[in-house]
Structure formats: structure tokens, C-alpha cells
Design a protein that fits this description.
Number of domains: 2
Strand content: under 5%
Radius of gyration: 21 Å
Number of strands: 0
Number of helices: 9
Helix content: 55-70%
């Protein structure tokens, strides 16, 4: 987002966007997002349009229990994995030329690191504990059991579709 505004505008834009993610509910976050998009439209129309277009993706973490929000809205695990891939490829790069004879060799190294990270998350350190994931399942069961007003059905259908998509993502495992 910040690449679409001038350096002088970046602190204002980043502060406004940060405020969206500190909302205490999904409705409050939607309201804040619309306010920020309206404020940015005259000065940074591309950023305002990007925010509006990505509203569902940006606020998807609000469908989970509040205990998960701080972990789901952050990209820390992804940044950690990317940093590790960079570190390992830098170490390999100090050896004589030819360590990566082609792109496939680099992809094998990166793939191996991703498999290693997946194994660590499955067996060792979990980003979201089993107890906290049980909260997600209980929250979904409770949401399905409650009757809903007609206006909320479309939003709930999207939430359920997202939940189904999350459940259908295959786990990468090694033998």
C-alpha cells in the first residue's frame, strides 16, 4: 500500500490502516475501513480502491475468536520462514560457484526448508494450540446452531464458505 503514496503521505496512510486492525469487532473494522477509504480517496485513490477491493481478505481474521486475532492478522510466521530461506541460501552462496546449477536446485532447497518448517509446526511448536483451535470449532458450531436474521445470511454464507475452504486445504506431510 505504501508504495502507492509519496514518502510524506506514508506515515498518515500506515497509521490509518493500522487503526483498522485495532477494531474490537468485525463491524467496527468494516466501518473504519470505509472511513479510511473515504479519507484517502481524494489524495490516494489507488490505495482507497485497493482497500475497498480487499475488504473481505483484510478482515477475514475477525471470523475467528478474538484470542486468535493478533496471530492471524500478522505475517510474522511467513516473515520468519522467508528469513530462514534467505539465510540458508546465503550460506550456500558462500561456497564455490555451481551450488545452484539451475533454478530447480534452488527450488529443491527452498522446498526442503518449507517441508522442514511444516514438520516443526505439526509436531513441535504450534502457532495456534489445540486448545485455541477447539475454540474455533466451538465458535463455528455455536454460530451454526443460532438462527439468524435475514440480513446476516449472506455474510454468514461467506463465512461458512471460507471455513469450508480452510478445512479443504491439504496438509503437507513427509514420510
Amino acid at each position: 500500500m505504501l508504495g502507492h503514496v509519496t514518502k510524506a503521505q506514508q506515515p498518515l496512510v500506515s497509521g490509518a490502516i493500522r487503526g483498522i486492525f485495532t477494531a474490537t469487532s468485525a463491524d467496527e473494522a468494516r466501518t473504519r475501513l470505509r472511513q479510511v477509504a473515504d479519507q484517502l480517496a481524494p489524495h490516494a485513490p489507488k490505495v482507497a480502491r485497493l482497500l475497498e477491493d480487499a475488504e473481505a481478505d483484510l478482515l477475514a481474521f475477525y471470523a475467528f475468536p478474538a484470542e486468535h486475532w493478533s496471530k492471524l492478522r500478522a505475517t510474522n510466521p511467513l516473515e520468519r520462514v522467508n528469513r530462514e530461506i534467505g539465510r540458508r541460501t546465503d550460506v550456500v552462496g558462500i561456497f564455490p560457484v555451481g551450488i545452484f546449477p539451475n533454478d530447480a536446485a534452488l527450488l529443491r532447497l527452498a522446498g526442503m526448508l518449507l517441508i522442514e518448517q511444516n514438520d516443526e509446526w505439526l509436531v513441535g511448536r504450534r502457532y495456534l494450540s489445540e486448545a485455541s483451535m477447539a475454540l474455533v470449532l466451538a465458535h463455528e458450531a455455536q454460530a451454526q446452531a443460532q438462527p439468524q436474521p435475514a440480513g446476516d445470511r449472506d455474510h454468514d454464507a461467506a463465512t461458512q464458505a471460507n471455513a469450508l475452504n480452510r478445512k479443504e486445504v491439504p496438509q503437507l506431510t513427509t514420510v
